[in-house]
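Team,

Forwarding the record for the chain on the shared tracking sheet. I've put the sequence and predicted structure together so nobody has to dig through attachments.
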Amino acid sequence: MPVFQSAQLVEISERILAAAGAPLEVARLVSTSLVESNLVGHDSHGVIRIPSYVRMVKEGKVDPLAQPVVLKETDTMALVDGKWAFGQVSCQHTTRLVIQKAKKAGMAAAGIVRCNHSGRLGEYSLMVAREQLIGVVMVRGVQRPGAMAPHGGSARIFGTNPISFAVPAGELPPVLVDFATAAVAAGKIDVARAKGTSLPPGCILDKAGRPSVNPQDFYDGGILLPVGGHKGYGLALVADLLAGQLMSAEVYEGNRSTQGTFIMAIDIEPFRPRTEFGEAVDQRLKLIKSIPPAAGVSEVLIPGEPEYRSTAERRRSGIEVPQATWKKLLDTASELGVELPDPVAS
């Protein structure tokens, strides 16, 4: 597989998105967000998304020039119109707004309507945690008719409905919980298809309702299953209600999409001093890490720890891009008249 340093991938992504009509600052913001996902080990939300983003621009589903605007606002909430900009643009803007409000009021929440695919939710919950606040992010839905069935169902109705929580610690990195409520993120199915590998059992059904591990079966009319059966279904429904129904996402988006985004920030200081909280979190995490690992497990990990380690490793050794993904990037660049550099990791 071709291997790139992160700066090379950002440059490649920037060139393609700029050629597709994005202003340089927007192309750089989106590119940096995508490559950060590659760095943390979530290739499903990385540069593999670029060809689909370009296609959405061509189809008029993404407006590369758009900027989000606030529709409604109080001291503790906001409803933001993403204007069909790149989702990363809308989510970063709204996260900064929520942080600002939470620091003044102790807690704040915002919803985004007319919001495109926003990438990895952990990016935004971590933005909150790095400001010494607790971050909560949820997304409801994808393009109709969805991708995932409810527990016990046999037809698509939900998106992958990811949720993310980030809690600041003291000297240790923030705790990061970030996962799709589906058994596997849709982007990870695309990565498996690009690599020619199978999915774990229990992730999808084929179009006939039979269990499958073949990624292509999902794209041929198959169905995603919720993670953990009824538990994942319950989480998916909560994300659906908070990130969709709460801000009337369908009213604003019409028949185009059912997506909505919910972002919340909670200040620690009203509950206890931030420094004291950070020390307590550190102590708790160290205690958890001291638990003897189960048979066949090398160590107990804290949520977010694999991402931090992946980032350090991939910054050293480079980011592997499946050959099929690299070919799609080359084809997309060629269609736009963009010349890409050869993969050279150093």
